[in-house]
Amino acid sequence: MATSPSTLDPHLDLAQAETPFQDAALIYDYRQAANPIRPGLTDPIPDQRWSPPTLDGAASRVVPLDLSAALGCEGPATSPGLAAHYLVVRPGEPLPAPAEATSSLFVVIRGEGRMMLAAQHNAAARSLEWARGDVFVLPHGFEPVLHAQQPSLLYWVHDAPLLRYLGAAPAGARFTPCFFSAHRLEEEISRLLADPVAARGNRLSVLLAHRDLPATRTISHTLWAMVGAVPPGAIQAPHRHQSVAIDLIVDCDPGCHTLVGTEIDREGRIINPKRMDWEPGGVFLTPPGHWHSHVNESGRTARLLPVQDAGLHTYLRSLDIRFAGGLSGQE
Fold it and tell me: What stretches of 238-321 show up as alpha helix (H) in DSSP?
């Protein structure tokens, strides 16, 4: 029979009492645990850059942009919540792209082809033709198989690492599939570039949103995506946010780069920035909370497409995006 608290020996060490679940109970001084983001505990997210794989003679394959070893988490993972990949698709070598994720976003970097979905979906919506510059996003349950008409390269980001961390599995589709054609995106960017009012803003960008998510105005419940233009001579004022940015460089000439750092001075300039040089089809990662500024020292407008876990941050009201000032240095 259990002993009532009033009859316990006052000298009894309660930690040794036969109470279940105590072995896992730890207590830390607040100063030791309030910010565990440091090497060896919760490892900081590194800045990183990847070059696109070659298509010459390469078989169809998935190329993960994997930082799981540096993050101390199960992989593949590019950030704690997202996994980015290159997809190389060869004609006659269909490539499945399944993921235990709520959201999968695809960007066509090169080539053209067709996406086929599983037979259980409506016959009128089981396939989609894609070409360079197209963007499409799929919910859980819509597992695509990619067929290329010519050697093709796609960019794929999904949120499986977040679900693995939570020990969760998607219960079903949380939104409908969504497609943005390259033609439509280019029209919107061209309209912005021609607008003198927009040119004075910090960003010349269009956000990709889903009709089913009017509150967050994001492309899925977890993912945020943008198509941005950086005109010749532009030096964007630094900004930061608490989401991780995984940026795809859609198009650029030499001289385009991003400056990244943890602090800014009183004039809004990044202190001791690290330079991330751009290349077409390349990808780079910006850690959360880091100030970053896109710069175009070439003679032609550059384009980029960042994907972030900002859909989730927007819902949690934790994005905390901040700007150091307006767009400067634009001709």
Answer: 310-316
Is residue 16 in a domain? no
Q: Summarize pLDDT for 216-267 with one digit per residue, the tens.
A: 999 999 999 999 999 999 999 999 999 999 999 999 999 999 999 999 999 9
In what order do the strands lie in the sheet containing 95-96? 95-96, 145-148, 112-116, 127-131
Q: What angle do CA 261, 285, 147 make, to 5 degrees?
A: 165
CA distance 136 to 130: 9
Domain CATH code at residue 307: 2.60.120.10
Helix/strand/coil percent split, the chain, to 5? 15, 35, 50
Query: Which comes out higher in pLDDT, residue 22 or 83?
Result: 83
Count the domains in the chain.
Answer: 1
Cα–Cα nearest to 286, from 46, 38, 44, 43: 46
For residue 300, report the phi and psi dihedrals to the nearest 5 degrees: -140, 145
Q: Per residue in 227-244, is it b (16+ CB within 10 Å) or e — as a string?
A: bbbbbbebbbbbbbbbbb
Give the structural domain span for 56: 48-323
1 vs 15: CA distance, rounded Å: 19
Both structure tokens of 7: 């009859």
State what percent of residues in the chain have pLDDT above 90: 77
Helix spans in the chain (H): 30-33, 68-71, 160-166, 182-193, 310-316
The whole-model pTM stands at 0.90
Q: In the predicted model, is pLDDT for residue 327 greater than 50?
A: no
Q: Is residue 274 part of a domain?
A: yes
DSSP bridge pairs for 130 = 113
Share of the chain above pLDDT 70, in %: 89
What distance in Å separates the CA atoms of residue 219 and residue 66, rounded to the nearest whole number? Answer: 23
